[in-house]
Amino acid sequence: NAGVTQTPKFQVLKTGQSMTLQCAQDMNHNSMYWYRQDPGMGLRLIYYSASEGTTDKGEVPNGYNVSRLNKREFSLRLESAAPSQTSVYFCSGAGSGWETQYFGPGTRLLVL
Amino acid sequence: EDQVTQSPEALRLQEGESSSLNCSYTVSGLRGLFWYRQDPGKGPEFLFTLYSAGEEKEKERLKATLTKKESFLHITAPKPEDSATYLCAVQAWRNTGNQFYFGTGTSLTVIP
Question: Which domain holds residue B16?
Answer without folding.
Answer: 4-104
